[in-house]
């Protein structure tokens, strides 16, 4: 048999890619310091959470649908720790000033808090696969596709998507459940991800497939 005849057919249809038996939902960094009006992102850094706040309902809709259809949920969070952040991180950001373990700011916003049976993965740099058990857990669950929601689409989400793609996972991006603090950056990263990594679709398209 020719080698090309032994290759699996491409899985290109959304319904096939995100079927519950092969998919996990990955929610990235929906933590108080970044999302909440009282978080450091707004109160101390003077940044806007305008677009970040807008994705809470769509992230919540994805979360509830995943729970209803037994799609595994991965809650990624970033933590700042002087001893655990890489030197590159420290040289750029300086001493830890936000999302410090044990603080309110590091906790997930109330509408998106994990259940006790859901996976929470903490990391100390942008990429969700670096220095974490994420890859091993996904393989144990036989996950092939990762549906992404959360922040920042142009940094932590982008780096995790790219690494996941390199490891063989199929990324699907819920465009209206992803955000950053800059509309231009948001448009640019969604264009790049859609052209080079995976499908960029609406939350409603995903929910139409994840029927209980």
State the separation between the terminal residues, measured CA to CA: 41 Å
Spatial sequence of strands, sheet with the most strands: 3-2-1-4-5-6
Mean pLDDT figure:
94
Approximate strand percentage: 15-25%
Fraction in helix: 25-40%
Please provide the ordered H/E string of secondary-structure elements. Answer: HEHHHHEHEHEHEHEH
Number of H- or I-type helical stretches: 10
> What overall form do the CA principal axes indicate?
globular
Got a strand count? Answer: 6
The multimeric state of the shown protein is single chain
Structural class: alpha/beta
Low-confidence stretches: none
The Cα radius of gyration reads 17 Å
Biggest sheet, open or closed, and with what strands and sense? 6 strands, parallel
Overview of this protein structure:
α9 (183-196) links the parallel β5 (170-178) and β6 (199-201). It is globular, with a radius of gyration of 17 Å. It contains 10 helices and 6 strands. It has helices at residues 14-17, 32-35, 40-43, 50-54, 56-68, 87-93, 134-140, 156-167, 183-196, 203-209; strands at 23-28, 73-78, 119-123, 145-150, 170-178, 199-201. Helix content is 36%, strand content 17%. The mean pLDDT is 94.
């Amino acid at each position: 048999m020719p080698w090309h005849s032994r290759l699996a057919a491409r899985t290109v249809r959304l319904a096939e890619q995100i079927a519950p038996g092969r998919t996990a939902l990955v929610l990235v960094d929906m933590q108080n310091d970044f999302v909440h009006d009282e978080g450091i992102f707004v109160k101390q850094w003077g940044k806007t959470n305008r677009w970040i706040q807008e994705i809470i309902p769509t992230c919540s809709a994805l979360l509830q649908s995943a729970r209803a259809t037994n799609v595994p949920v991965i809650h990624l969070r970033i933590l700042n720790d002087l001893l655990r952040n890489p030197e590159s991180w420290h040289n750029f950001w300086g001493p830890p000033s936000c999302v410090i373990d044990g603080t309110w700011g590091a906790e997930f916003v109330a509408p998106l808090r994990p259940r006790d049976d859901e996976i929470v993965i903490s990391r100390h740099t942008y990429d969700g696969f670096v220095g974490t058990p994420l890859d091993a857990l996904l393989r144990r669950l036989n996950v092939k596709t990762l549906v992404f929601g959360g922040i920042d689409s142009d940094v932590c989400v982008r780096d995790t998507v790219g690494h996941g793609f390199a490891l063989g996972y199929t990324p699907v991006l819920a465009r209206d459940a992803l955000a950053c603090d800059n509309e231009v950056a948001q448009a640019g990263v969604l264009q790049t991800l859609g052209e080079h990594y995976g499908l960029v679709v609406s939350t409603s398209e995903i929910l139409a497939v994840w029927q209980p």
